[in-house]
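Exercise: predict the structure of this protein bound to guanosine-5'-monophosphate.
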Amino acid sequence: MSSQRGSLVIISSPSGAGKTTLSHKLLDEFETVKFSVSYTTRPIRRGEVDGVDYSFVSEERFEEMVVAGEFAEWAIVHGNRYGTARAVVEGALREGHDVVFDVDWQGGLELSKQWPDDALMIFVLPPNLEILEQRLRRRATDADDVIDRRLKMAIEEIGHHDIYPHKIINDELEQAYSVLRAVYLCRRHKEQAPQRARDVVASNLAANVGAHAVSLTTKGQEQSS
Ligand code: ADP
Ligand code: 5GP
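Solution:
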């Protein structure tokens, strides 16, 4: 057991912006970081592993878990149910692990309300909507109608960027990751974090990425009206 309490590293984004890719890089680099495996009722995708990417459960099993109070939060996203097990959060905090939560804005909001001092909130944005669409189509894990639905929902998700103090534009992957790792290092090591990491975080906070999020939302609304 570590003497340091763990953090909830909450990473949200519109689908396709790259939060899974960025989270995996963080998990690969830092042994101190674990992944919270959510429960979901959505069908398993090609390449996914049950119990690793998600625990895939039936509607009935999910409902039983809701009734038994096993979820710290759960939400309906793109028509399927997703939930974070309470035991994962409590275990991680107790044992001093930092845990990555890949959740939507509803999950992010709920977790940060329940654990306000432990949550590190990060929102990943695409450079523009055309690239978001390309990434979703290139990933080729969803049918066309599912991709269309995810694109519509992306605008709504981006509209909640304000909940997240840290916002990262995922244009060039290594550059975006350098911001994520700096945000993490500053949280983990506080005043002892390397100066370079502190500079990266300060300049990202000063870059007003919120304005970029607002312009994406405006564009998305114009396109869909
Ligand atoms: P999310 O988890 O937010 O839905 P993913 O991490 O699955 O998004 O990324 C969506 C697709 O975009 C994947 O095919 C991934 O390899 C690709 N991708 C992620 N980040 C970048 C990037 N910076 N440049 C180019 N492609 C990217
Ligand atoms: P996907 O189906 O692409 O894996 O995920 C769809 C969305 O569900 C993503 O925005 C992802 O962050 C979110 N999600 C995954 N697990 C959870 C969870 O446990 N709770 C909530 N609220 N959202 C989740």
